[in-house]
Amino acid sequence: MTERNLFNQRMSLINTYKMNKQNMVKKYKEAAQVMGMNRPHNTPILEAKHTRDLHESEEKYKVELNRMDMKLVLELDQKVSDQQVTLEKAGVPGFYVTNHPQEVRLQMYLLEFILRLANAVSGSASL
Questions:
Q1: What number of other Cβ atoms are within 10 A of residue 95's Cβ?
Q2: Is the pLDDT of residue 58 over 80?
Q3: 81: how many CB neighbours lie within 10 A of its CB?
Q4: Residue 87, Cβ neighbours under 10 Å: how many?
Q5: What is the predicted pLDDT for the residue at 86?
Q6: What is the mean pLDDT of residues 4-26?
């Protein structure tokens, strides 16, 4: 559930950026149209400003997305650590707090195996 919430947060940021960019482009098109009718000699200046603003917005977005990604990774790491502590305290063999990717992957395989066994036992018990 947590992974889905974190993913939705990230997608929300991406969608907000896309909407902001679309609004910015629409606003500049309208301004260019008005400017073109009234002052056609200022059109290159407006286009340069538009390009600069879009670039600044994109850079800000990249920084913000990177910051959010780092936050999400830290939250997921904390969840993994919390689960490792809980399973270790419960006495489940093979579980201890670690950040080593291969050991975490092994723990994930162990947990998946335990869940399959539990489902197989509960499935055969209901027969």
A1: 21
A2: yes
A3: 14
A4: 19
A5: 95
A6: 92
Q: Angle of helix 2-38 relative to helix 43-89, nearest 10 degrees?
A: 180
Which ranges of the chain would DSSP assign to H, the alpha helix? Answer: 2-38, 43-89, 101-125
The DSSP call for residue 92 is -
Q: Which bin fits 92, alpha (ψ -120 to 50), beta or left (φ > 0)?
A: beta
pTM of the complete model:
0.70
User: Are the CB atoms for 98 and 88 separated by under 8 Å?
Assistant: no
Residue written as tokens 């500049």?
28
Q: How far is CA 65 from CA 5, 13, 26, 70, 99, in A?
A: 16, 7, 23, 9, 24
DSSP assignment letter at 39: -
Tell which residue, 116, 22, 7, 127, has the closest CA to residue 72: 7
Q: How confident is the model at residue 3 (pLDDT cuts 50, 70, 90)?
A: confident
Amino acid 48: pLDDT: 87
